[in-house]
Amino acid sequence: MRRFSLFASLGSLSTFALSATARGDYQPPAGYELIPLFDSSNQPLAPEGLGVSASGEMAVTNGDTVTLYNTWQNGRTVIGSVTNPAWLYDSDPVFLNNSTILFSENGNTDALWSVNFSAPLPAITQVTPTGSLPFVEGVTVLDSTHALVSGQNPTPPSYSGALYLDSVDLTKTSGNISNVVSNVGSGYPGNPAVTPGGHLVLLEGLSSSGSAFAHVYTSTGSSFADDALDNGNGSGEAYGIAFDSAGIAYVTTDHTITKISGIDAVTPGVSEFGNEGGGFLSSISYTGGAFNAGQAGDTGALIVNDSDGGAFAIVVPEPASVGAIGGIAMLLAARRHGRRR
């Protein structure tokens, strides 16, 4: 997959100016570029949840609707879309394969669902019984026949803590849920993950202390490490997690993205990977190849959803894009200067 050029993605100077205003708060680290994502009406793409496949297809959830697109890039087309009145609060979708989407729903069903878009009419399946996954938060693929879900068994009146990880056997219709980790922490759950080294991750945010953690477990559920993610920013949030092609983890932590190098080590490296002044960064997904600042040929892309302005991609800029942005910035500055006279 090769990224599109700046002007193919933004369409025009006026579109760029609009996007800079709408999405100007988030500042990626030096050596990376932000590309705003738009819908078919040229408005900021603002789904409730999103996920991107390894080959670049994108799935989004919006209440009772799940839609699959051929690409995350602007100008995308719809492969399929389904609506179900049983869906109210859907998690970020994940790809079991290029045509099958998994997601959890915790508004009406507290269950795991799948949609297969390979047939002319997408096939909807409720994978687990209603109520089987209390306060289910998120899902990821454990292997070709199993999913890993995160959730919470809350205790009134605080409704916090008692977090869990469950494994779901996708080949069974009953008795398909096995608990892996239970009664964790004292905060709120984020999405689960499987690291490149085969460890399991349960994200937790503690609003009371302003701290966030990535609890790391062995494949059998034994505690391995508790990685602190707050970096002094007091976010108290840890929602989404994605891994680049080198195995580096990126976690959305309120208005920041936290980078974890060596997450499969007992003591990893934790640092901030860009931030914004407000909003809430939620969904995060990764697609493409390498993702190194200063390497113009790298094709990796972090796709992030922002409650304060819509989705965007973080990429390594191509030389032409850097020049175009510089030229546009100079033109806008000249226009502003002219208006002051």
Summarize this structure briefly:
The chain has 341 residues and is mainly beta. It has helices at 6-10, 13-22, 319-340, and strands at residues 33-36, 49-52, 58-62, 65-69, 78-83, 94-95, 100-105, 111-116, 123-126, 138-143, 146-152, 163-169, 177-184, 188-194, 200-206, 211-217, 223-228, 241-243, 249-253, 256-261, 269-275, 281-287, 301-306, 312-315. Strands 1-24-23-22 form a 4-stranded antiparallel sheet. Strands 2-3-4-5 form a 4-stranded antiparallel sheet, with no helix packed on it. Strands 6-7-8-9 form a 4-stranded antiparallel sheet, with no helix packed on it.
Write a structural description.
This protein is mainly beta and 341 residues long. It has one domain: 6 Propeller (Neuraminidase). It is built from three helices and 24 strands. The strands form six sheets. A four-stranded antiparallel sheet has the order 1-24-23-22. It has a four-stranded antiparallel sheet with strand order 2-3-4-5, with no helix packed on it. Strands 6-7-8-9 form a four-stranded antiparallel sheet, with no helix packed on it. A hairpin with a 5-residue loop joins strand 2 and strand 3. The longest helix has 22 residues.
Q: What attributes does this structure have?
A:
341 residues, mainly beta, Neuraminidase, four-stranded antiparallel sheet, 3 helices, 11% helix, 40% strand, globular
Number of helices: 3
What is the strand arrangement across the widest sheet?
Answer: 1-24-23-22
Instruction: Count the domains.
Output: 1
Q: What is the CATH fold-level name?
A: Neuraminidase
What percent strand?
35-45%
Distance between the termini: 47 Å
